[in-house]
Amino acid sequence: MELRRNTWEYTGFEAADPILLDIFNPNYDVDLPAIPDEAYFYTTRRDTLGIYLQDQITFADNLKVLVGGRFDTFQRKETELGETTGEESLSAFSPRVGIVYQPIQPISLYASYTQSFQPDRFFGRSATNEPFKPTEGTQYEIGIKADIDERLSATLAAFQITKTNVVTPDPNDPDLSVQVGEQRSRGIELDIGGEILPGLNIIASYAYIDAITSEDNNIPVGNGLINVPEHAASLWTTCELQSGDLQGLGFGLGLYYVGDRNADLENTSILPSYFRTDAAIYYKRDNWRLALNFRNLFNETYYETSQGRNTIYPGAPATVIGSFSIQF
């Protein structure tokens, strides 16, 4: 069961003397203007209750079925300058069904069907200031998992995800949002993981995704979705010494490739592909572990995500994180 309350508060006003920053030599040591009495105050509160049940039924040693569902109820209340401006109550049931069949012990064939339901309440607003409809999704997936040996396994899956009423930036006004008619993603994923040799572990993955706008009144059908690469791949490997005076010393190397992505639904701006390298070195003994993690080792300039063509988020530069942990 899930019980949650989210509250978003917005304050907007025009400063009499706006603060000007030089983007090439910014000075942040400035006094912020006071909030005037005529400022715009807007609050949205959403209460959520979710009840989830599922059961796994074993029909035979090699045949299992998973049946589940989630019931959600939401209550949303909006206030403006202390006055209630809108209230809404929504509820939905989202089923989930899955089946796993093993023709032989190392091979598992599976299929699943899932629905989802999520009211959207973003910090942005629609041009008509109307509340957004809930985002609804349907996912189909089939796949095969093979235990190559006791230490190594691989999974190949094909999927289709369809979403309706997805909230995205308004192409005519970056301060507002719109809901597209329908978005569809189809693809395959390949994952391989395990211990190749004692102390040598790998996790490798590849994904191909064809993600498009499949129905809409404003966006051309067939346009690619925002922030979804057609091709993506990663490899993370660690090597840990198993004996000798340096037993427990380990090294890690991560390689990540993300292909070109659309920055807007009109497909007028592209986030270029990038290749990022991470690394790690650690030492563990008994119940403690000391580690250094290096993210973006070669300080690659890349763009991680976007919210329309006017809001682009760059990836973090070279970063070093040290950690020490003790397990009791």
Q: Could you describe the 3D structure shown?
A:
By secondary structure, the protein is an all-beta fold. Helix content is 0%, strand content 65%. The strands form three sheets. It has a 14-stranded antiparallel sheet, with no helix packed on it. It has a two-stranded antiparallel sheet with strand order 12-13. A two-stranded antiparallel sheet has the order 16-17. The radius of gyration is 25 Å and the shape is globular. The two termini are 30 Å apart.
Mean residue pLDDT: 88
Structural class: mainly beta
The count of β-strands is 18
- CATH class of the domain at 120-328, named Mainly Beta
CATH architectural label of the domain at 120-328:
Beta Barrel
Please estimate the helix content.
under 10%
The major pleated sheet works out as: 14 strands, antiparallel
Q: What's the SSE pattern?
A: EEEEEEEEEEEEEEEEEE
Beta strand %: over 45%
List the uncertain runs: none
Which geometry do the CA atoms define? Answer: globular
The number of helices is 0
At CATH level 3, the topology of the domain at 120-328 is: Maltoporin, Chain A
Rg (C-alpha, Å)? 25 Å
- Fourth CATH level, the homologous superfamily of the domain at 120-328: TonB-dependent receptor, beta-barrel domain
Strand arrangement, largest sheet? 1-2-3-4-5-6-7-8-9-10-11-14-15-18
| Gap from first CA to last CA | 30 Å
